[in-house]
Design brief:
Helix content: over 70%
Order of helices and strands: HHHHHH
Number of helices: 6
Shape: elongated
Distance between the termini: 52 Å
Oligomer: single chain
Length: about 200
């Protein structure tokens, strides 16, 4: 296994970030092209970011806890299953739902799609990067589990770091990098995004 340090985690997070951005673009573009053929959007609700974010301390706590603890825990449980990349399901689900909403909104009303896309940029890219860091950590855990199982049946065993060293390095990256970024992202989403989104609505719609 590769070196267990912050640099190695960040490098792998950058690779996941590239994948997530490409996935977002493909999903959004696909939904946009598909929905261009829809003539009746009468049942499609108008999206409003200000209705989705509680501009308060409670909203900050709720978003931070979800992104820092609940989603990582769900992903960690999946990562314990010795199947590669299965742990990407929660992050892909989040990216899919967001990209789908943006793609449909562009097809429904192009200017409102533009406002929605630009409106989420203050926290959207950072949130995707935070998910990419999480995936980098889960990658190491999942790979360690798979290699440990394979070693049970191999004569020439693969070198594995001590489990304590593995957990220590993951916790270090989580505490020093992921948690602070998640808190900053939640601050932006709760206190900056709604005002930025409303400003865009006022000048573009």
């Amino acid at each position: 296994m590769e070196n267990l340090n912050l640099t190695s985690y960040i490098k792998r997070a950058n690779k996941f970030m590239f994948f997530n951005i490409i996935l977002s673009l493909l999903i959004g573009l696909t939904l946009f092209i598909t929905c261009l053929n829809i003539n009746d959007f009468s049942d499609y609700p108008n999206l409003n970011l200000n209705n989705k974010v509680n501009n308060s301390l409670n909203g900050l706590i709720e978003i931070f806890c979800n992104n820092a603890f609940i989603m990582p825990l769900a992903s960690l449980i999946i990562a314990l299953i010795p199947i590669p990349y299965l742990y990407m399901i929660p992050s892909i689900s989040t990216i899919f739902s967001l990209s789908m909403a943006i793609g449909i909104q562009f097809a429904y009303k192009f200017n409102e799609g533009t406002v929605l896309l630009l409106g989420i940029l203050p926290h959207g890219l950072l949130e995707i990067y935070i998910m990419s860091i999480l995936l980098a950590l889960l990658f190491v855990i999942n790979k360690y589990i798979r290699n440990s199982l394979v070693n049970l049946f191999k004569k020439n065993k693969t070198y594995l770091p001590k489990f304590l060293n593995l957990i220590t390095s993951i916790c270090k990256c989580y505490l020093l990098v992921m948690l602070p970024l998640t808190f900053v992202c939640a601050l932006i989403e709760v206190f900056i995004t709604p005002n930025w989104y409303q400003f865009l609505k006022n000048i573009l719609i």
